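Lay summary. Proteins are chains of building blocks that fold into shapes, and those shapes determine what they do. In this project we predict the shape from the chain. Here is one chain we studied, written as its sequence of building blocks.
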Amino acid sequence: MKGVTLIFALIQMNCWGQKDSIIDHRDNEKYAVVNIGNSIWFLDYLRYKSENAFFNTDTDKLERIEVNYYPNSELKTACPTGWHVATIDEWEAYIDTLQFRYSIDDMQIKYDTLPAPNNSIIVSIDSLSIFSDTTLNLKPVGWVEGKEITNKETLTIWITYPNSEDSKYHIHISDNEYIKHTHKHNIIDKRKKTRQFAIRCVAD
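And here is the predicted shape, written in a compact code that computers can read:
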């Protein structure tokens, strides 16, 4: 009940940058949270040890960042009650916040696309260092393919589209660029090389 009260209190504040913390009562893990617009984000990667989560033990090489990696089959159950995997609208609101915070002009943001089957949208912001910004404290932790962590200089997180039944959307993030797309390759079609990504939980 206290966790629910905290969520509503933060929502009512509705001020960017308001920080607090919550407890995931499933495992008593504590997470810092931050208010961005009308949403509250985890400032940490989800660490809940679900049935199929892959836990990062490579802490020395990843600056001791604690993170679990999840298959797309767990997106509806991974986050604590009252929280959900970040949506595309919530991600775009975060980018808008960065644009305002760092006075980034629309002309400094470049958009490109890749053709089917991925239909990727590539967004480049040359004047922004995502991994240096502390708004969400996003850090490169790569992703899991099979049983190995790879692409450790980048970050990939799951993202959801509320009106879509496609649960394979994700965002690949580098320091000043991100790619959003969906595909089945190595997500649902190859069991031994299944990719699992990090999660940031959000509350409305």
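What the prediction tells us: The chain has two helices and 15 strands.
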